[in-house]
Amino acid sequence: MRLLAIALLLLPISGSLAHAQDRSAFAPGRWEVYGGAAVTGSNPSGATYGFNAGITRNFVPWIGAAGDFTLVQTTCCVVNHIVLIDYLVGPRVQMPFSRAGKISPFADVLFGGQTLINSSNHHSWYYETGSGPAIAADGGADVRLTHRLAIRAEAGYIYSQFAVGGTPSVSNSRWRAGTGLVFRF
Prior knowledge:
The protein has one helix at 2-21, and strands at 31-43, 46-60, 63-76, 80-94, 103-118, 130-144, 149-162, 170-184. It is mainly beta. It has an eight-stranded antiparallel beta barrel with strand order 1-2-3-4-5-6-7-8. The longest helix is centred in the N-terminal third of the chain and has 20 residues, at 2-21.
């Protein structure tokens, strides 16, 4: 009877030790690589479509550094073709609702640059081809499919400035959204 009582007392401790050995998807040292479709609005010719890709490295369980690359373009009519390229880095905070939960919301603030390539006859009077600084604030959620695979949905806001011929700069504020797959290793 005494042996049974000791075994019952040790059972919760042994379960917590096994649970602590489980390597979380957000453990320090973990990497995420993601990619998928992107859409953005409010650029010189309206909404644009393209792709988004990036990489994240977690330094502590829920805080990491993210690198983000987006390429979107639009073609309207024969004379209007604009490409926007964002290249951003910054901190990302991501925390699952629970250890066994499938949904993990995240938020980030990214800094970097943006390049606008304007081969348009229609909007070249306002936006010239050029580059400038950019800052983005995004949020979203990952829905875990397996231990190493998730689906991501995100939306945010990006602000940038471009150098323009006769004036110091022109600002471009726009929303952006994307969805894609996340691979964790």
